[in-house]
Design brief:
With about 240 residues, the protein is α/β, with parallel strands linked by helices. The chain has 8 helices and 9 strands. The strands form 2 sheets. It has a 7-stranded mixed sheet, with helices on both faces. The N and C termini lie far apart (about 40 Å).
Length: about 240
């Protein structure tokens, strides 16, 4: 029996791009039949028709499932989708497909066949190719430097790339402990996975910035710094 993989797309007011992203993803599934794929649209509090479109796509396509939440929160949507999944491997990617979707089979293979508990896409690792504004590049590198200062034994080059996969062991060990419901979710996941002794692997990716992104740099940076301080204080008696 093929390994079951859930690919989650968290959405908030993405009615203009959701359907095309779903069609692109389903086409990739058809080209990579080594896994038993399912696409989960995790809508979190949209008010622009995204939830209705998600339900319509669920009805139209066998491999699509709509998970409609009434509360906003990207991290919350991922937590709910992963903890209610029965898949062997869970993953997620951003709805804008900024990360080249052709990397998805390799990301999953790192978990399914290469001994990784958590596999993450990296826009900053050697071999990655990115197209984005200088301010975003500086912000990302600065944040990674801050993570390394706070948790020096966590050897990652990119915490925030919206492209990750986990095995069932990692989901059960880590996800229930994650407190953040928004953008710091990814970093908290990686810190907890590292502290649990799980194997984290990085995949250099091709990534193109979505200029219509909903990420607000200043507010997200503030959330990230607060999150790092919370995690550091919480784990201050443990190795970092």
């Amino acid at each position: 029996m093929a390994t079951r993989v859930d690919v989650v797309i968290p959405c908030y007011n993405e009615v203009t791009v959701l359907e095309q992203s779903v069609l692109t993803t389903l086409a990739l599934f058809e080209q990579n039949t080594q896994y038993d794929w399912r696409l989960v649209i995790a809508d979190n509090g949209s008010n622009d028709g995204t939830s209705e479109l998600a339900r319509d796509l669920d009805a139209r396509f066998e491999r699509v499932k709509a998970l409609v939440l009434t509360v906003k929160g990207r991290g919350l949507a991922l937590r709910e989708a992963w903890l209610t999944s029965d898949a062997d491997i869970v993953s997620y990617m951003d709805v804008d497909l900024s990360t080249d979707i052709n990397h998805l089979p390799e990301l999953v293979t790192m978990v399914a066949e290469r001994g990784c508990d958590v596999a993450i896409g990296s826009r900053l690792a050697k071999g990655s190719k990115t197209d984005r504004q200088l301010k975003r590049e500086i912000t990302s590198r600065g944040y990674v430097a801050l993570i390394r200062m706070t948790f020096p034994r966590l050897k990652i080059s990119d915490a925030q790339c919206g492209f990750k996969a986990l095995n069932r062991k990692a989901v059960l060990a880590v996800v229930p402990q994650i407190e953040n419901r928004m953008w710091f979710f990814d970093t908290e996941l990686l810190i907890l996975a590292h502290q649990a002794g799980l194997k984290i692997c990085e995949l250099p990716v091709r990534w193109v910035e979505d200029t219509d992104t909903k990420v607000k740099i200043i507010s997200t940076a503030t959330e990230d710094i607060r999150g790092l301080l919370r995690m550091r204080f919480r784990r201050k008696t443990r190795p970092s």
